[in-house]
């Protein structure tokens, strides 16, 4: 039943386009007409050592693609397809695959190991192919080195592919034993050792039980540490990657080894090649991540129920770690500030230093200050840059009390350096450091402000001047201005020291956006971001200037749309996105207070016309920004938004159909909500189309799951807007809500991400019920909802019993109880009285500490008492 | 198994401004949805409650300043609060005159006083409705006339630039204006930011009042945008400690009796038995009615309305009949149906059988003051009567609150029959 496919596979890689196309067509036909034979033939080709390397490789690749795909829905299809094939055929294919591991061809071995892992990825979770691990490992020691290597690679891919719970502990033990033996220095073949180290990296997640066993853990750790000393740089690097993975997976088991690991990493940072040294630094960054998380979660207050205690590894290693990291800062690359993709030891070391500062706080300051003082004025730019970077790195973490005197002292120095230092590196880092000072040590909440009316003018002048510098320095100056403005965000309508310079700042930022070289170093983006923040933090005094800014930005957007007619490119689209974003911030700011809204409304028609033109471009980012801005506009405009609907509607529908750029879809769903609240019953003529699209979205398995909860909430928005007119959608919407509710009622065994998603889904469903019940209130058609009441109450009861709702869901859920009672009244009285929710759940919510929950519960109690008493 | 990318964000913020915009939009939408939901929950039922006719007249007290406007107000067409808030002049006066909830006088102690009731010390002063809307605040006395027009920190209570939320949304508070410290003591909340609380239980209204009022800054001392200070009144559960606290506790205002509010009762315009007023000499200067000279008359006086067939009635709905005048006497004294007539209660007193008035010894004094808008209520007459004969004392109230507690603790004795 195997077909001869060699020639087709070779033709499919031919230079001749026609030949290639023909071959691809043949393969497609073969696959569609006889899948079993197709797969078997490919496996045969891959296994046959007499065939050309090219055809074997492609055969393996096509096989792999027949088993897995990136898109979730396609992946599910392929899995189902494989599972439904004849078991005998599958056994034959699998035998061919396993045989290929011993092939003399390195390409064939390496390809087949991935194919085997894909098959395992499908079958192991279904308790099929139980003999796989056994047969891979049966005589691994006696195998020739190339086959040993391929076998270890296969194990690595399998561990990457399947989740730990589908492999039983006995097999895990065997895998780990084989892998760790492969890493051992007694293994003479470096390819085998490398394959083993990489396999261990993937297998670490399976080793929970082994890491809990002192002896086994000691053994694994000893071998990993030894492997970091291998003469082969690839093996050393892979071994450090394992250490990094261990630092996050088994943080709580590291105490006995931390001293040794410090020695190993310190040596690597000092002496080893950069790719290895980077991993060594990453180990400590990763430990910082862990300790920051732990300290944030428990606030340093550890009790018996803390999951993982903090071992304060960073604090203990501090006096050795900090000098090691400071040393790396002097190893900058000449052009790292211009190269977007750069990542070197100085950057990694500085980043790690920043994390260490966040982990230990004040303790880091005395260890870093001498380095700064010694180097900040040296003639060598590397020393000045390193000192400045060190200072910028430690500004987050230590207390304001500790930092304020230092920052106040350094401020003038930095401002001068930004103007006068001859090195662009130093200026770049200096501007960034100023931004960090403003980000962490400036704001209305701090006791002693570092920025006073006295020095504000100088700061603004220097930053504006610096915006004319080379793009990477100007970008950082814009960033510093962003945080300077942000510090006044909470100042409210009180006068801000920035007010006198508002006009100059806005002008300077607009000038930056027009620079010829503004596309370099994200400069233009940084300028618009700073402009947005300046707008967000404007106050009563500066609002008139924001009103004047609106037509300027509109003109910019108009110009890009005109240019687009001539030529359309990435940058044009990116700029449109930035301009729409800026307009969104302006609309939201001016729309939030009546007098400014009044002034702004004169531009509404023009602005809407511009947004609609943006939808003609093909950039998802621009669409997303325009849609967000339209949502803000609908909110500010209110019922008058109706006049834009005829034109806007088709883009709304287009957004709802955009499965691929699911962010656009999600944002459009949110905007439907904005429009519903703005138009209320005037949205009715558009509801058939919108509801059809939303229902389609929900039943699609192509749409990203994160969009589904907002769609349910959107049902509620629509129902609330159109009231009893929602009647005709009940038949479709209610069963969808009901089945989603059943699915989301239980989370047992799910991980944190899944629980979080389930809660957002529940919230969406509940918001839908709320809107529907409230929408029908007082209508003669109220009784249409009666048949759904038992299910809704049951859903609330099961949520209550499940005990894993977050506060948001609790608040929405108890509100739905009230909405149901409020709308259905006495006819639902007996049902309500039977439900647990109306008793225990309500009682719990009434005594909640969360005032939003309490508020909803009070309201529900009132509605229920009315429903029951009449 | 390709090598893993280690790069971390370098000299750049972790969250892009675009992400920030997205998050802020989501927050705004969630907030707007909550507002819309709350609006639906509270507003939609308002219209219903206000469509009911309000026929009960406000109950006057002798010591209140009386307004020389005795014409019986025509019933204005039924409006909801939104429409009413736009009324001007006489129309507004007529409408607001009917909107206050008035307590009955406590002539016997309700059951479950300790469980179902709140108690608080009533501030002495002018009862009024305070409405904030469209950048101004107006207080209206019980007859609907304006007491003050002023800027306040209540929602939309002053014209300022940074006000948030729709300017036309109104708030209505039930207050007593206390002259001495020029403070509005808020005793109830009727509407808040456009949400009607008419249909809400007192328990909820007080909860809402407590949590919302302070948020606005209305309780701050007076300032340019805030002419009068507003203040909350301490409200207690009517158990023993609550009752004692209300009765003896020190408050910054002069007390005028105690008010009892049933926890489950809605805000009902007119006289309601679900709110009660009680006074004694310790907690009020105005226990017994005074005449126009401020003197307590020797005999209790009552004002009754003369109705068809000479019946003398209270202002209650349905009215309680105290007696009957014969046609000759009416003709002689130029009395006609609708007149308010003043009587003294004579030696024979009031005779009650099973809580119902059987006989009243009434001595005609004359027509009532022209300023009087309506007759006395039955509960007021009875309270005044009992004050003069067998007053309901604080000890009786405390006793009833205690006995409730005793009852629940009471152990049943079982007789041993051996």
From TrEMBL, chain A:
TM segment ranges: none
One of the record's GO cellular component terms: cytoplasm
Keywords: Cytoplasm, Protein transport, Repeat, Transport
Entry-linked InterPro entries: ARM-like, ARM-type_fold, IMB1_TNPO1-like_TPR, Importin-beta_N, Importin_beta
SUPFAM superfamilies given in the database record: ARM repeat
Primary residence: cytoplasm
BP terms from Gene Ontology: protein import into nucleus
Domain of life (superkingdom): Eukaryota
Alphabetized GO MF terms: small GTPase binding
SMART domains linked to this entry: IBN_N
Location(s) in or outside the cell: Cytoplasm
Protein family membership: Belongs to the importin beta family. Importin beta-1 subfamily.
Record-given protein name: Importin N-terminal domain-containing protein
From TrEMBL, chain B:
Gene Ontology CC: cytoplasm; nucleus
GO biological process, one term: snRNA import into nucleus
Snurportin-1 m3G cap-binding domain boundaries: 99-275
Family note: Belongs to the snurportin family.
Taxon lineage: Eukaryota, Viridiplantae, Streptophyta, Embryophyta, Tracheophyta
Function: Functions as an U snRNP-specific nuclear import adapter. Involved in the trimethylguanosine (m3G)-cap-dependent nuclear import of U snRNPs. Binds specifically to the terminal m3G-cap U snRNAs.
One example GO MF annotation: RNA binding
One Pfam family cited in the UniProt record for this chain: SPN1_m3Gcap_bd
Organism of provenance: Arachis hypogaea
Gene3D superfamilies documented for this protein: DNA ligase/mRNA capping enzyme (3.30.470.30)
Record keywords: Cytoplasm, Nucleus, RNA-binding, Transport
Ranges for region Disordered: 1-77
Record-given protein name: Snurportin-1
Cellular compartment(s): Cytoplasm; Nucleus
Basic and acidic residues bias locations: 52-66
Keyword Nucleus included in the entry's annotation: yes
